[in-house]
Amino acid sequence: MDMKRVFQRPPLADCVPELVATARGERKASLVIRGGTLVNVVSGELLPGMSIAVQGSRIAYVGRDVSHTIGEDTVIIEAEGRYMAPGLLDGHCHIESTQLTVTEFAKAVLPLGVTGGFFDPHEISNVLGLKGLRLMLDEARTTPLAAYMQVASCVPSTGPELETTGASFGPAEVAEALSWGPDMIGLGEVMNFPGVVYGDDVMIGEIQATLRAGKVADGHFTWASDDWRLPVYAAAGITGDHECVTPEDVAERIRLGMYAKMRQGSAWHDVAETIRASTEMGLDTRRMMLVTDDRSAESLLHEGQMDFVVRHAIAQGVKPVTAFQMATLNTAERFGVARDIGSIIPGAIADIILLDGRLAEVNVTATIAAGQLVAEYGQMVADWEGFVYPAEVMDTVHLGRELSGADFRIAAPVQEGNVPVRVIRVMENHVDTKEVRMTVPVRDGEVASDPAQDLCKIAVFERHHASGSHAVALVTGVGFTEPAAIAMTVAHDSHNLLVIGNDDELMTQAAKQAVALRGGVVVVSASGETRFPLPIAGLMSPAPFAEVAAQSESISRALQQSGCMLNNALMTLSLLALVVIPEIRLSDQGLVVIGADGIRKVSLFVEEDATEA
Fold first, then answer.
1. Are 426 and 578 in contact (CB under 8 A)?
2. DSSP type of residue 406
């Protein structure tokens, strides 16, 4: 879709004559921000009494006196008593995980001081392939954001023997996507880390295509930080990784030349631990980055996005200027775009935020993006033409048949008695799960869910090709205290239909409703039915940010009323099908365990170990 770009970000080379003319006063600035305290993330200083002159979308002059750049038409923003900082950057984010379109995401985060990010659209890529990625890129280009896209490396995250997705990427697809422009910044997180370590041709080929294009490759390594295979992974040219949960994880990656990304998402809280690599171990912070990965719409509404993460890091003892570096300059340097974004210096794009109060409070009161005031005091003041998704993107849920209660039954190896089984245990505020062994009763040849043991059924149904492939297993830690079920087409990363519940009929009802919505989230309980439509690829809503946040909150309330008190339960439960994060997950192909020996399928029933490949 060819849409006019209102918020231009032309190359520096094209702007040099105008910038130099403005800097010497011959041409007058389009915007001046005057008299504030500059947060200089390059030198690590706070410099009072500074001013910034902007020409078009780029900064022409930074100094104590910019009066020579002011003309009759210059817009002046007085910044006395305020801080002037570079716009915040998210170094690892999947916009689809907010359930917002790129447009609505931009409108949600710009008032919070987030002016850009490095986005891995592997959610929509797993559903729609290159078409989905291109739509996200095209929409991003219409917004004020410095939105850099990565091509998904793992479509699927592993292979067709472990999960079914709607598309498949290889080296050719990676090379094609990286040719779409400089805002296609690199290769998204390489989740098939065993494939890289042991020389899988496809994974190695994708990394090679990325490096040949002069781009960077992001990582996802979940083996222990002292595992001998981390240096092997780094040798492939992967130079950033967000799977850090301990200070040792951060340290080992930095020592190998990688950027360590410390995340504070809605459902996983890792900064308090990982930041100790700086506050306690004393490591240099220039290869440390703060990221979200990811924050839900309701979290954006009530807590914030990167502004929240920076505040949290400061609360852990990080100097404010250092925390800003971790969310601006370090991030820009990691992706090779520090000439354009990440600091307030002459020649850089004018992505600037103004902050009131103490710097540690990160109280953003104005956001300038590409040289234009776009948000002020928590509200957008800029608008742009909306992006329209094609009709086929709204029709991606294809089961090929109507589900029934029989689809949720688990046939046992015995007719009556008890059997030992593997169970997925949900871990609150963490991305990982634990494999636990439990003994469950069998009645009439079937395993039943057991509310007394907080034992639910979990099922995944392939929804891209109507193949009929599906699997059912058991999960604990959900917390339901009454008959209830949740069904969702947001099920990382293959995004098949995921259903969790303790009542087969309610699971059937929830699943049918999710299909009828053409994608979304449905909770069914004795209290009624709550729906959250997500028709765009079964992942996102076309509704405005506030409406999406309200619908997300309604799902949270419905889960809580049924006894599920997990923090940000929707995001936590949506990861139970992600077969590249330890320890155990469920895909449409069956139970999958992720351990030191790699990723493999296992049986639900423990006694069948001897027959497993």
1. no
2. G
- Would you say 237 and 217 are in contact if contact means Cβ atoms under 8 Å apart? yes
Compute the CA torsion angle 343, 346, 349, 352 (nearest 10 deg): 50
Reported as a single tens digit per residue, the pLDDT across 45-70 is 999 999 999 999 999 999 999 999 99
Q: β-strand 58-63 against 75-78: which pairing, if any?
A: unpaired
Half-sphere exposure of 411 (CA within 13 A, CB side): 4
| DSSP for 95-141, written as a single string | GGGGTB-HHHHHHHHGGGTEEEEEE--HHHHHHHTHHHHHHHHHHHT
Write down the pLDDT at residue 435. 97
Ramachandran region of residue 520, left (φ > 0), alpha (ψ -120 to 50) or beta?
left
Rg of the chain (C-alpha set): 25
Which residue is it, tokens 């954006």? 300
Q: What is the number of H-type helices and E-type strands within the chain?
A: 18, 30
CA distances from 451 to 480, 540, 610 (A): 7, 32, 30
With contact defined as beta carbons under 8 Å apart, do 585 and 578 qualify?
yes
Note whether 236 and 266 are within 8 A (CB): no
Consecutive H or E run containing 233 = helix 229-235
What average pLDDT does range 578-596 have in this prediction?
95
Confidence of residue 607 (pLDDT cuts 50, 70, 90): confident
pLDDT digits (tens, 9 = 90+) for 272-295: 999 999 999 999 999 999 999 999
